[in-house]
Amino acid sequence: MINDAPVNIARVKRKPLAASTYLVRNAGKTIPLTGVIVLAVLLVAGIVSMIDSIPLSIRTIYHYSKSSLGITPRGDASLTPALRAEIERKAPVKPERTMLCRVSSAVVKSIVGKWPFIVIAMAQNDMRFYLAKLHATKLAGRLPMPGAPEALISEPVARNLHLKLGSNLLGPSNADAYSPNNVKVVGIAQTDEWLMVGTIEYHRAYHYPPVDVLLVFARNAEEQSVLDHWAEKYFKGRRAQIFAYHELEKNTNEMFQTLYKILNVVIGTLVLVITFMMAMLMNIYQSQRVQEFGLLQALGYTKRQLLQRVVRESLIVVVVGWALGVVVGFGLLNLVKVVLMDPQAYALDTADRVAFLYSVPIPIAIFLAASLTVIGRFRRFDPVGVVERRLV
Amino acid sequence: MIRAEKASLVYHDHGKEVFACREVDLAVQSGEFLGILGPSGSGKSSLLYLLSGLKTPSSGSVTYQSRRFDTLNDEERSRLRLREFGFIFQQPFLLGYLSSLENVLVARPGEERVEEAAELLESLGVSERAHRLPHELSVGEKQRVCVARALLGSPKVIFADEPTAALDHRNGEQVVDLLDRHRGEGSLVMVTHDPSMLAAADRVVSLIDGRPELPLDRASAF
Predict the structure, then answer these.
(1) B159 pairs with which residues across the strands?
(2) What does pTM read for this prediction?
(3) Which of A132, A140, A168, B35 has the most CB atoms around its CB within 10 Å?
(4) Which residues of A touch B (CB under 8 A)?
């Protein structure tokens, strides 16, 4: 009997055919497979979250309108007092405050270009109420003085338009935000809401045509919603235009419906292409394992056992690939947000659930393709061909 | 223990029937070393596949301990092979990503046999290669690992299909000797075209054109 030195058994794998053993020891194959899934998840989640950032920007930029109902008379500014009286008389909930404002147009920047915005001009005591209502309790600078060519903006607007105290918000040379005089920023409110506020006296004196807006505030969000829906029905077909946040949401959703349909087709095609590629790649890798499968089957492993093992391996690859893709995607979106979006106050939800949900079909499709490929291969597999070296 | 009765194995080649084994009647006794001898193409490997349940006969029957292989499904035959048989093939097939010791363990999944596997490698003289991957081993060392794999768990029958084909004569003799010495009470069915490898066989069956000639005693095989 040949007796050799004793074997150190401490470092041996007790289950050498565990899926993890194959994956770890064949990193040259596992890493590219996982990498493709990571990139695919990254791509899909990135595209969807960037597209989602457009309606998110709309909701963010115009979110200030959620705290009030806007009503403006159509064609005749003299109707304003009658509208005000009617609201206070007929509204189903008693408004906390109704303020008369004037508006002028301006723009803000978004990732898809310039968007219209309004400067709401109001009396100074209304400004205090308005800022409190929008939880803007901190203010850098001061409130605009009555009648002065002065304005107050919020911090996101300042970042978006690169404005600071003393900058011109409106001016004679600004085609997008015209005013016959330079209207200077004298206050910057610390809030996430996007705001441009001017003085009503100045707007009455210098802005034509006069556009009156009644801002009607309810006591809380529930009552505001009741008020908004009531106004929408009550003033339908009458000489008044309603601006309510839920309308904005509805219009935004309708506007993006078609875009999302196109997006579904694009993502669906992408998933198909990636799945096809991955199935081909996995098929190649499985072909390289014919000898292994043949040997194990000849030794007595059942097709079911081998199939379960390959399915476990595929499952680990797709789950790890997807999870890594989500983590890397989240990290990358945060980087994009910090480096590119935040300096311009562009909205981007880095934890956009819809974006990451869109990436779920990728691992599922790849897993199904891989499993079906292996099932097909095992169905016609003859281990004798391998041990006779006919199939190697 | 294993009995083949009028067992034939037919392949179809371009619509033509080719008999790999033709009406073979053969019994493998418990604990015996049965040699199957024959030139290339004589059907000796096919007979081994029939006896081990890797193939089911086209006609006739093969029975292992009163169980006819053709009445078992693919899964039952596989389980039987894994539980009761050990295999060595012409080429020393090992899984490239597993060490020698792990390759041996593959033969008995789910069982705690690390110590036994290590002892087998020690007694086969390859303990220093226990943690090496197959590409780091010589062909002779690989075949010894395959022998250890076939012996693990003391199978009731060991099937060896030309186990010396990839080895030089000296290494070949060593492998057969190791198999014979370590098989314990298990039977050994070995296929070869080299009669000198069957010097230790209890019985030798010579195969020509898929049909056994009269059983030879050891002396007349040489």
Answers:
(1) B87, B189
(2) 0.82
(3) B35
(4) 1-9, 11-17, 21-22, 25-26, 291-292, 295-304, 383-384, 386-389
